[in-house]
Amino acid sequence: MKHSAHAVTDAAVAIIRERIERQVYPAGAMLPSQRQLAEELTISRASLREALSTLEALGMVAIRPGKGVYVNDASARLGVAWRFADQISLADTYQLRYALEGFSARLAAHAASNGEIEWLTDNVEAMKAALIDGDVDTAAQLDFAFHLRIVGLAGNGAIADILRGSTEIVMESQRLPFYQRELVLSTYHEHLEILDALRRRDGAAAGAAMERHIVLAAQRAGIHFPIPSAYPSPSGLPPRENAERTGVPHVQL
User: Which residues does residue 69 pair with via DSSP β-bridges, in sequence order?
Assistant: First the structure.
């Protein structure tokens, strides 16, 4: 019986973990109530509590007495804590950047001089070298400089002040995706797409490339957030088709 009880708990752990990894339960979401979960999984409340304790030990969830069980960010599951959780969530940080930086890139495309394009090109190549060398801190600094330069080109002082005033928070959100070692050069390639659109002075493409980059960077950090249908999708597809192709959900407003 003892062996059977452990098997039931292990099965529950595997099912809930799979749902978390497939974003059925996305980062930051509260799991269904223990009563509902126990009924869905056809296990006892005691076995479910043991399964949830195991998932908490694995860093998958956080059990908050009296409030519920919440899914941790992938950064926490990777053992890399989000240091600013008491100020702003990681998901909110990426959504803020998505809103501000996509708009900024659209404006910057029409304001960038050849000299600015050359500066951004040098920055992108320097970041690539840092990533190849495994120098995450330098890569994050160059990443921040790239984004801030584009915001500066947009000429919106309020947006620039927001990002400068949140330098450490923004830089940390840029550093986290680099811990996915097999995808470490993804940021470089996405910056190249943004740069190419800026070079062509194509505002729509620059904004879409920036938004796509932030969505994908967020996903590498374990954050999946919905894109309102009023906004252009980062792939350039209509929102519903974009959701089907990329797995990024849209919200009909």
Answer: 63
Q: What is the pLDDT of residue 1?
A: 37
> For residues 18, 19, 22 and 25, what is the CA-based torsion angle, rounded to 10 degrees?
-150
Could you give the C-alpha distances from 235 to 9, 189, 204, in angstroms and in order? 41, 15, 12
List pLDDT tens digits, range 125-145. 999 999 888 888 899 999 999
Extents of the domains making up the chain: 7-72, 90-221
Q: Is the dihedral of CA 239, 242, 243, 249 positive or negative?
A: negative
Of the candidates 26, 44, 21, the one whose C-alpha atom is nearest the C-alpha of residue 226 is: 26
pTM of the predicted model, to two decimals?
0.64
CATH architecture of 7-72: Orthogonal Bundle (1.10)
The CATH superfamily label for domain 90-221 reads GntR ligand-binding domain-like (1.20.120.530)
Q: Are strands 250-251 and 68-71 parallel, antiparallel or unpaired?
A: unpaired
CB proximity list for 63: less than 8 A, separation 6 or greater: 52, 53, 56, 69
Contacts of 235 (CB under 8 A, 6+ apart): 208, 212, 242, 245, 246
Long-range contacts of 85-89, Cβ-Cβ distance < 8 Å, separation of 24 or more: 87/169, 88/169, 89/28
- Judged on CB neighbours under 10 Å (0-12, 13-18, 19+), 54 is middle
Give pLDDT < 50 ranges for the chain: 1-3, 235-253
d(CA 49, CA 27): 20
Specify the pLDDT at position 78. Answer: 54
pLDDT of residue 6: 65
